[in-house]
Write a structure and sequence with these properties.
Radius of gyration: 24 Å
Number of helices: 14
Oligomer: single chain
CATH superfamily of the largest domain: Response regulator
Strand content: 15-25%
Largest sheet: 7 strands, mixed
Order of helices and strands: HEHHEHEHEEHEHEHEHHEHEHEEHHE
Distance between the termini: 81 Å
Strand order of the largest sheet: 7-6-8-9-10-12-13
């Protein structure tokens, strides 16, 4: 072989790895924006990744996920969405309730959006219909807000002689006026008095705690809200310190020491969100993916906390419980 031919061949061989590298497909980028905090969402991200892996997208090998967390500060969500959109996203995930989904929807009408919310996506303008969303957004409705009256009824059954029940509620989340009216009407039907304590910031939450300590409410409902979820340990610790029987929305409050929870499984919802992102990455259109509605509610009772509070759980509530924490 002539020297020139050898050098030419060698140069071509040296270029092979570069060419092969250049031809490797670029990993799709998923923007993941949440109203919650990273610390209280680790298990939810794991559920999301599990759903995604069912379509062949495992960890950071096959996709890149760029996370943004609002930590319960809903006014920061539009800026987080704008920041994510500076990347070439394949899908924008908006979880942690309506504020994140609405911020994503306002930020783009072209990039596919997969949301996880607690209420009605038609009512707030995210989709045209449940079966055929019709735009660039689809996702999961956890129906977290719907059972507020049911939680009140369960607390009434647990504490039938309590004169006043307190309600911790965020006036900046969901349809505050509608939720307040529904709870007030449910209380009227049950023949109970309720008092609302409003909080949408850490300072307001502290003020609510101080008002609760000075008031006469002897039992509490913590309404559905990602801000409260991200302050879960703080709220549960307060209820324990002042011996307040309290019902919450998600199982995670009971495992953290809360007395009782009634609501949808968050992990199931986030798993389904991952499934939908996987389907979109495989070519499905959000406009044609029906909004997934979680319909299985779970009642979780923490008997250890009940004993510490000196409360006996009625037999009928125990019989209804999907999980009892000893």
């Amino acid at each position: 072989m002539r020297r020139r031919e050898f050098i030419t061949l060698l140069g071509g061989a040296a270029a092979w790895p570069l060419a092969a590298h250049a031809q490797q497909p670029t990993r799709p980028v998923i923007g993941f924006m949440s109203s919650r905090s990273a610390a209280d969402s680790e298990y939810l991200v794991a559920a999301f990744r599990k759903g995604l892996s069912e379509f062949g997208y495992v960890g950071d090998q096959d996709v890149a996920i760029d996370f943004r967390w609002a930590n319960g500060h809903y006014d920061e969500l539009p800026a987080l969405a704008a920041d994510l959109l500076r990347r070439k996203l394949a899908v924008l995930v908006a979880v942690g309730g309506e504020p994140a989904a609405l911020a994503a929807k306002s930020a783009t009408s072209t990039i596919p959006i997969v949301f996880t919310i607690g209420g009605d996506p038609i009512k707030i303008g995210l989709v045209a219909s449940i079966n055929l969303p019709g735009g660039n957004a689809t996702g999961v409705s956890l129906l977290a807000i719907a059972p507020e009256a049911k939680r009140l009824a369960m607390l009434h059954e647990l504490m039938p002689r309590t004169d006043l029940i307190g309600v911790l509620i965020n006036p900046k989340f969901g349809d505050f006026e509608s939720r307040s009216r529904e709870l007030s009407e449910a209380a009227r039907i049950l023949g109970r008095w309720i008092e609302f304590f409003r909080a949408s910031t850490d300072a307001e939450l502290q003020s609510a705690f101080e008002s609760i300590m000075q008031g006469k409410a002897a039992a509490f409902i913590v309404t559905a809200d990602p801000f409260f979820d991200s302050r879960r340990d703080r709220i549960v610790a307060f209820a324990a310190q002042y011996r307040l029987p309290t019902i919450y929305q998600f199982r995670e409050f009971a495992t953290a020491g809360g007395l009782m929870t009634y609501g949808i499984s968050l992990t199931e919802g986030y798993h389904q969100t991952g499934v939908y992102v996987g389907r979109i990455l495989k070519g499905a259109k959000p406009a044609e993916l029906p909004v997934h509605q979680s319909i299985k509610f779970e009642l979780v009772i923490n008997l250890k906390t009940a004993r510490e509070l000196g409360i006996e759980i009625p037999a009928n509530l125990l019989a209804l419980a999907d999980e009892v924490i000893e």
